[in-house]
Amino acid sequence: MSNERLKADAAMMMEALSEQMSGIAEIQRNRARLTATVTACDKRISVTVNADGILIDTKFADDIKDLSYEEIAAAMTHSVQAAAQKVQAMTIELMEPLRERKARLPRLSEMLEGAPDLGDMMPMTPRVSTAPPNSPERHYEEAAPVYEDVEDFRSRRSMINDTDR
What we know:
It holds the Pfam family YbaB_DNA_bd. Keywords: DNA-binding. This protein has five helices and three strands, in the order αβββαααα. The chain has a domain at about 25-105: Ybab, Chain: A. The chain has helices at about 1-30, 70-105, 110, 120, 155-165, and strands spanning about 35-40, 45-50, 55-60. About 55% of the residues lie in helices and about 10% in strands. By secondary structure, the protein is mostly helical. Helix 1 packs antiparallel against helix 2. The protein has a three-stranded antiparallel beta sheet, with helices on one face.
């Protein structure tokens, strides 16, 4: 009887996984079509980004010459960032049904005693800065990794070259 239950659970999981994969494929297709457009400076500037937040279209109105280069540059930066945030929010909204479906699935640890929750093991993605280069926000305080007990490759290479002569 235990074996039959295990087969039924496995079949249920495989069906759920198949549905999940189909859902992911559909979301990926829909996400690839997303764009977001933002205007600035009384609609003198219009920018459009794709689903990855990459600028794909820029339009300037005829009266753009009334703005200084600094105003145009600042408006472009702000507009592209705003459009990227907009498309990111649309992506999150698009993925919500998939997240809800995933939340209803049993965790591996619920099915197999002692199994880890793989979701808990995933590292958190750090926030990506939108600050310009050389701004204080871009001065990271993290130290470079320190590697201990590592043989110096350069000295080993010179030893090999010395013996080949």
